[in-house]
Design goal:
The protein has 468 residues and is of the alpha/beta class. It has 14 helices and 21 strands.
Length: 468
């Protein structure tokens, strides 16, 4: 039975895509292993959003060259966004690379892997019989990055992990927004959405197998279905129309047995009154919204092609917090975008202090090939980016600590997801506001929802005792 190893870089969409590939291989009899040295197939699912993610994947594949020399029958592959963006160029750079598959061909990976495994084993046998002259003849490369719409069908292993509590569900692919810093429209293609009925069926099947919480995924998730499906007239008090995305939220919320519903990541542009009302009225929607800001400077937002102002963003956050008191708001911010002056950065810093986010992902701007921002003048020095990154990180960390410390002495509802990553003697779960809670594993509570009395806060985690 062939064994495979898959490592994922990047976002939750990539995690879901890796899950898709893993389950398709398992369905064919492959065994998943946790270490690449135990594998007959090594796959790296890549990210291109930032240069660091690309360099990590390239560095990892480079380190595998020694393994490739001692085990020439092993199949090595790049999947995902970097594969889509760079294609056959990767084969030229990495001699032992066999497979390059883009973002719209994950459903083809198992076929390609089967073929490569069989051909390498056959060629290795030929080498043993001296039918081939060189070990180099063992290289059989495949590159497939062609667009193929309609490749979102989900394959899931029928043997979910025991009491698996959460699952990602992809509802759409691609993006039409064309932010000037972003390579996603090139790597993921144009927006295209699955039907509500197909998504609801997938969620029902997950719930029937014990999943309590699902997270809906999309490049800009709240623009789901805007080109494919109609909005519908709203009843009194719910705005003028109900968008396809809110229709989907309502349909999933009606599924018996589902306890929590999340979505990521939305765009401020698509956050209209019907979605604000859904946050207020759908109890299964968890009290957490991740709403990318990117910059607090209107001049930089315009250069980014973000289509909103800092004032509109702050107003929207106010509406979200009013709709569901106690809701957590997290964000993404880019520092060091081309042309960002000290006053531009100060505008971002001031807005972050004003918003008091529960957490944030802060990124130093990273030029992406064939994006408009990469060719803009006034690129910022790395030292300036790093200084702004660390300064803003200090503000966010302080805000996060204050928010967590306010929960000490309270009771919070937790969905237990499994063992703590740092201590297998403990279990961890998440609150409805997406905060991590760690507690002693006195009994197996995986997949269960219960209250925890919070006793202390440490960095980004909370610690407490379960209450029966």
């Amino acid at each position: 039975m062939p064994k495979f190893f898959i490592k994922t870089y990047g976002c939750q969409m990539n995690e879901r895509d890796s899950e898709q590939v893993a389950h398709s291989l398992i369905a064919r009899g492959y065994e998943r292993v946790s270490c690449e040295t135990d594998a007959d197939v090594v796959l790296l699912n890549t990210c291109s959003v930032r240069d660091m993610a690309e360099q990590k994947a390239l560095g990892k594949m480079g380190m595998l060259s020694r393994m490739a020399k001692s085990r020439p029958e092993t199949v090595f592959g790049f999947l995902g966004c970097m594969a889509q963006a760079r294609g056959a160029e990767l084969l030229k750079e990495i001699p032992h690379l066999d497979l390059v598959v883009g973002t719209q061909k994950f459903h083809r990976v198992a076929d390609y892997v089967d073929g490569l495994v069989a051909r390498k084993r056959s060629a290795l046998a030929a080498v043993a019989e001296r039918s081939l002259n060189r070990m180099d003849d063992l290289r059989f490369s495949i590159v497939d990055v062609e667009e193929e719409v309609g490749s979102q069908s989900t394959i899931r292993d029928q043997s979910l992990a025991p009491k698996q509590a959460t699952a990602f569900v992809s509802i759409m692919q691609g993006c039409n927004m064309h932010c000037t810093f972003c390579i996603v429209p090139r790597t993921r293609g144009a927006e295209r959405s699955r039907t509500i009925s197909e998504i609801v069926s997938e969620v029902r099947a997950l719930v029937a197998r014990g999943v309590k919480e699902v997270t809906l995924l999309g490049q800009i998730v709240n623009l789901y279905g805007r080109h494919e499906f109609p909005s519908v007239a709203a009843v009194a008090g719910r705005g003028k129309t109900i968008s396809p995305f809110v229709q989907l939220l309502e349909a999933i919320s009606a599924i018996d047995g589902l306890e929590r519903l999340r979505f990521t990541s939305p765009h401020p542009m698509g956050f209209r009154d019907d979605l604000i009302n859904a946050i207020a009225q759908l109890p299964k929607l968890a009290e957490h919204v991740h709403l990318p800001l990117q910059s607090g400077s209107n001049r930089i937002l315009k250069a980014m092609h973000r289509t909103y102002t800092a004032e509109k963003y702050a107003e929207l956050v106010g509406k979200i917090r009013a709709a569901r008191p106690g809701i957590a708001v997290t964000t993404d911010i880019i520092v060091g975008f081309p042309g960002e002056t000290h006053s531009d950065y100060k505008a971002t810093r001031d807005l972050v202090e004003q918003m008091q986010f529960d957490n944030a992902f802060i990124f130093r701007y990273s030029p992406r090939r064939e994006t408009p921002a990469a060719g803009m003048p006034d690129q910022i020095e790395e030292s300036v980016k790093e200084a702004r990154n660390q300064d803003l990180l200090g503000i966010i960390n302080a805000s996060t600590r204050r928010g967590n410390e306010r929960l000490v002495g309270t009771r919070v509802e937790v969905l237990c997801e499994g063992e703590s990553k740092t201590n297998p003697a403990r279990l961890m779960g998440r609150t409805r506001t997406n905060k991590v809670v760690v507690f002693e594993a006195e009994e197996n509570r995986i997949g269960k929802i219960f209250d925890v009395a919070i006793e202390r806060a440490n960095g980004f985690s909370l610690y407490g005792q379960p209450i029966d």
